[in-house]
Automatic annotation (TrEMBL):
This is Nucleotidyltransferase domain-containing protein. Gene3D superfamilies: Beta Polymerase, domain 2 (3.30.460.10), Nucleotidyltransferases domain 2 (1.20.120.330). The lineage of its organism: Bacteria, Bacillati, Actinomycetota, Actinomycetes, Glycomycetales. GO terms for molecular function: nucleotidyltransferase activity. Residues 20-54 form the Polymerase nucleotidyl transferase domain. InterPro entries: NT_sf, Polymerase_NTP_transf_dom. It comes from Glycomyces albidus. Pfam families: NTP_transf_2 (PF01909). The keyword Transferase applies. SUPFAM superfamilies: Nucleotidyltransferase. Keywords: Transferase.
Length: 269
C-alpha cells in the first residue's frame, strides 16, 4: 500500500522510537490506512498495545512519550468521544492529525473495524487479531424510530421560537445520527455519521443537500420537512425490522407543518 509522503515520513520517524520501548508490544493502524485508501487529507489512527502490567504507567506519561517520539504541537484526551485511552493530536513540523490509542494487550483485539499491524513482538498482535474478529456496530433502527419523532417536534419548537442556530445545529445532528448511518448500512459500511458519504453514495448525498439551509426561517422549515420525507423514504426499503410509531409521526409532523405554515416569506427571525 502506498502512503502519502507526509504520512510515510511521520511513520518512518515514529515507529522505530516506539519499538525501542519494551513496554510496547506493537503498533497497528486503523482507519484509512487499515482499509487501504489513505490520501493526503487522512488522519493517522494508531493503536499501541501495551504490556498489561505496564499499562497504568504508560497511560500516566502518554503525552510525554508522544512528544519524545515526534514533534507534538497540541494534544488532548478523548473523553468527549467516549474513549479516555485516546490522545488526539496535531503533530509537526508539517501539520498532521494523529490519534494515538493506548490499550492493554489483552484488549487490543476488541475493535469495530480492521487493523493493520505496523510492527509487533513475536507475532502477538497478529495472533490476537486472528482469534477475535471485528464487531462493528449494527444499525438499531428501533432506537432511531423511538426518538426520531420526538426530535422532529423538538426541532419544530426551535424553529417556532426563532432559535435558528439551534435548529440548524439540530438538523446537522440528524444527518450524523440518522441519515448517515442509514446510507452506510445500505452499503455495508461502518456506521460513522456522514463520513465519506459523497463517495459511498453520491446520489443519496445529493438528496441530503435538501437538509442544508441558511439562517432563514423558511429555509430551516424546508430543511426540517426534507428530514421527515427522507426518513420516511429511506426507512421504507431498509432491511432492518422495526415498529413504526404512527401516532408520534402524525403528531410531530402536524406540529411541524403548522409551524412552517405560519412563517412569513423571507422571515429571518
Amino acid at each position: 500500500m502506498s502512503l502519502p509522503d507526509v504520512h510515510e515520513r511521520f511513520l518512518d520517524g515514529l515507529l522505530p522510537r516506539t519499538r525501542s520501548d519494551p513496554r510496547i508490544v506493537g503498533v497497528a493502524a486503523g482507519g484509512s490506512i487499515a482499509n487501504g485508501v489513505p490520501d493526503e487529507y487522512s488522519d493517522i489512527d494508531l493503536v499501541l498495545a501495551i504490556e498489561d502490567d505496564e499499562f497504568d504507567e504508560v497511560m500516566r506519561g502518554r503525552l510525554a512519550l508522544i512528544a519524545a517520539w515526534s514533534p507534538l504541537v497540541a494534544g488532548f484526551t478523548g473523553e468527549h468521544v467516549g474513549e479516555p485511552r485516546l490522545i488526539i493530536s496535531l503533530m509537526g513540523p508539517q501539520a498532521l492529525h494523529v490519534d494515538f490509542k493506548f490499550v492493554r494487550l489483552t484488549d487490543f483485539a476488541t475493535r469495530v473495524d480492521g487493523l493493520r499491524v505496523l510492527w509487533e513482538r513475536d507475532g502477538r498482535l497478529s495472533a490476537a487479531l486472528a482469534a477475535t474478529p471485528p464487531a462493528p456496530p449494527r444499525l438499531d433502527l428501533q432506537w432511531i424510530e423511538d426518538r426520531f419523532w420526538v426530535w422532529i417536534h423538538y426541532g419544530a419548537t426551535k424553529l417556532a421560537r426563532g432559535e435558528l442556530l439551534e435548529a440548524i445545529g439540530f438538523i446537522a445532528f440528524l444527518r450524523e445520527t440518522v441519515f448517515g448511518p442509514l446510507i452506510q448500512h445500505r452499503h455495508g459500511k461502518l456506521l460513522q455519521g456522514v463520513r465519506r458519504l459523497e463517495a459511498i453514495d453520491p446520489d443519496a448525498a445529493a438528496r441530503l443537500e435538501a437538509t442544508l439551509c441558511g439562517s432563514d426561517r423558511g429555509e430551516v422549515g424546508k430543511a426540517l420537512l426534507a428530514c421527515v420525507e427522507l426518513y420516511r423514504q429511506w426507512t421504507d426499503d431498509v432491511d432492518v425490522a422495526f415498529d413504526r410509531n404512527h401516532d408520534a409521526a402524525g403528531l410531530a409532523t402536524r406540529y411541524l407543518n403548522e409551524v412552517v405554515g405560519r412563517i412569513r416569506p423571507g422571515a429571518a427571525e
